[in-house]
Amino acid sequence: MITTVQQHILQEQRRFPHASGEFSWLLSAITLATKMIGSKVRSAGLTDIVGAAGDVNVQGEVQQKLDVYANEVLLHCLSTRASVGVLASEENEHPKIVGHASDDAKYAVVFDPLDGSSNIDVNVSVGTTFSIMRRPDGASCDEPERWLLQPGTKQVAAGYVVYGSSTMLVYSVGLGAHGFTLDPSIGAFVLSHPNIKMPKQGKYYSVNEAYAPSFPPGYAEYLQMLRDGQVNHPYSSRYIGSMVSDFHRTILKGGIFLYPPTSDNPEGKLRVLYEAFPIAFLCEQAGGKASDGTNRLLDMQPTSIHQRTPMVVGSQVEMELFEKMV
Ligand code: AHM
Ligand code: MG
Q1: C-alpha to C-alpha distances, 293 to 48, 242, 306, 315, nearest whole angstrom
Q2: Is 99 marked within a binding site?
């Protein structure tokens, strides 16, 4: 028997006594949009869509870069859901207050429409990340910051889609992390990885080692210990440079992914709201741990929409050693 993501969301919703169904309707906007994005990503080499936004193609049409397309699709699909009042994207400086944001809109959605998009030109996997927050009591439509700037523990749902050798969606509403693989023959995300549990320990660490000289104290020694086999076995490294793909491997195989502060990015590179929070949420839901380098990442109280943070996520064994050493 197959379970589609739509069925799965409805089943999860039944566990909440007052569920109205509008939340599953909201999530269906994300599955629709990501299927549209996935389809464009699949044909990226064929359709002139690779390259800089604003270039004019042979038909004289202005080309749209894939990340611009992905952003527009998500904004459009989510704007049609009456439960959504505020949208924020990596691609837009300011949040969008949705036109019909009547007084009953309940949710804010934040996303990175196409993370790792510099990898598209060379046919490497990219992804979409998203997080959903509930509107705080009394927050009006013209104060979107109040909707958005909440600690990661307040996420009501989060997830990512990885456009890899297959397209996969991993999401959580706080009842475990579940993975779905897009079956292109029927156009549906089908449950393939129920209740993902990250192994307690993995074999790989994942970090951009070119920046190692500027990592804060402790990081170099920590990575050395992993390499030396001082933690049960010697580690190998894997770094795609596409966070969703690097994390997807980590959640399935265990290990650790780090984006520490560096001299170029002293606050880290990844964005709190739509990159770090959803990944940290899924990591914890799968039994792993997530840190901002010092504290539990999900406890962070963001102060601006595009704020960055150092990020370290992974399996229990690696994370506990990290907390001790760094
Ligand atoms: P982007 O949102 O501009 O695509 O940047 C985020 C990406 C992540 O996917 C990845 O983990 C990181 O940048 C890689 O950065 P670096 O090249 O500095 O290692
Ligand atoms: Mg990004």
Answers
A1: 41, 20, 19, 15
A2: no
Reported pTM: 0.95
Whole-number Å distance between alpha carbons of 30 and 282? 17
Neighbours of ion ligand 2 (CB under 5 A): 112, 115
The pLDDT tens digits of the residues spanning 194-235 come to: 999 999 999 999 999 999 999 999 999 999 999 999 999 999
Q: Which ligand 1 atom lies nearest to the CA of residue 271? A: 2
Of 187, 190, 170, residue with least CA distance to 178: 170
- Cα gap 190→186, rounded to integer Å: 10
Q: What are phi and psi of 81, to 5 degrees?
A: -95, 120
Residue of 129, 162, 242 best suited for mutating to test ligand 1, as the one with most atoms within 8 Å of CB: 242
Amino acid sitting at position 180: F
